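Retry 2 of 3 after timeout on previous attempt. Resubmitting structure tokens to design endpoint.
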């Protein structure tokens, strides 16, 4: 790990003031710290957000669930309000990594990292969430832009994420046994805007499976997806599975998610 200046401000204003030049925000640190230890990432200044109390918390109303950026995965999973409003979101959070990751990792850190196999991005895209920053509101459809890339500007701070409450939703993932990241994860939802199917783990970053959405829009059952496959072009191939394998697993995971959503 390279030498860096460490700061732990107590307010958003102080954090933003510290995030000048080559500075990085530290949320849960479950990805960034490991990358820095391996010297795959470096920064001159680390701005730890852990001391800013108002960046964490969960509020629920009749229309949406809003989760603070520094809310841990464990807190989302344990929230009775989230389990009642969007059970699929609570279950997703409860199956991220292992207990140590869930108790340290945060929603804001996960989405800002935009790992291609992270679970939360699929929830944002499938639920048509909105990311609130210190500067603006960003629709989930515009937030994830590439491999480890987002629409965030340098020094822009994620404050919270708002998830509209769907009629029904479910998330299923085929996980890598060691890391518990998604080899293929599919989040399916049906809400005011229709059916949305978001896929993580299969491509360079999260994406919507429009072919599956069209079929489920006509009939929201697992059988509606029989015989439908997505193109393997541009999907990931690695030691865990080929692009063709991942393409096939997208449909399988989507069928399982639909079955869960209607159970």
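Retry 2 succeeded. Sequence:
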């Amino acid at each position: 790990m390279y030498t860096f200046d460490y700061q732990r401000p107590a307010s958003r204003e102080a954090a933003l003031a510290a995030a000048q030049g080559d500075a990085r925000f530290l949320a849960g640190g479950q990805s960034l710290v490991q990358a820095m230890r391996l010297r795959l990432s470096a920064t001159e200044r680390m701005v730890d957000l852990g001391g800013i109390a108002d960046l964490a918390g969960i509020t629920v109303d009749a229309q949406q669930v809003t989760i603070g950026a520094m809310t841990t995965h464990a807190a989302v999973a344990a929230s009775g309000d989230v389990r009642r409003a969007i059970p699929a979101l609570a279950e997703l959070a409860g199956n991220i990594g292992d207990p140590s990751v869930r108790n340290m990792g945060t929603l804001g850190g996960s989405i800002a990292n935009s790992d291609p196999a992270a679970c939360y991005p699929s929830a944002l895209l499938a639920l048509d969430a909105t990311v609130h920053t210190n500067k603006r509101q960003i629709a989930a459809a515009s937030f994830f832009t590439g491999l480890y890339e987002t629409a965030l500007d340098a020094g822009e701070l994620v404050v919270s994420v708002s998830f509209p409450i769907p009629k029904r939703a479910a998330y299923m993932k085929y996980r890598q046994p060691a890391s518990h990241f998604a080899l293929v994860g599919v989040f399916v939802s049906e809400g005011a805007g229709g059916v949305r199917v978001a896929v993580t783990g299969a491509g360079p970053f999260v994406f919507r499976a429009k072919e599956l959405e069209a079929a489920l829009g006509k009939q929201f059952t697992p059988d509606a997806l029989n015989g439908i496959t997505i193109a393997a072009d541009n999907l990931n191939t690695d030691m865990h599975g080929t692009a063709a394998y991942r393409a096939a697993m997208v449909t399988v995971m989507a069928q399982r998610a639909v079955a869960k959503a209607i159970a």
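Attempt log closed. The CA atoms of residues 72 and 106 lie 4 Å apart.
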